[in-house]
Amino acid sequence: MEHIHVGVIPDITLFIQLILFFIFMFAMKKIFFDPYLAVYEERENLVNNLLKEAEENNKQVQQLLEEVEKKLNEAKNEAKKIMDEAKAETDQLVSSILKSASEEAEKLIQQEKEKIEKTVEEEKKKIDSLVRELTEIVVEKIIPQEKAA
Length: 149
Description:
The chain is built from 1 helix and no strands. The protein is mainly α.
């Protein structure tokens, strides 16, 4: 028996197809894949840079917010201090005005008392003088009647 040897005889078309496939893949890589990958990497870098920039901006915003909050608290404290000082000055001024008014009122009361006392004394003197005159008139009227009697 003879063996039949069946072998694969390589056909040149297979090599040509392989060469055409590699040329096609090389052309596709140069025309489509490389530009697509470059744009993809560029966008990815852009997105990463924008994310980093956004994080930095967010940190700056947080720092600014903290500074604003701090300055706002300082301004509130300063305003409270000014209001307290103004209240203290106002209270002191009111107290001073009330004390001055009270002293002035006391002076006026004392002056009016003295005027009243002086007027009372003058009126007493007038009344005493009138009483003397009336007494003298009564005495003169009574005494002449006794002399006549």
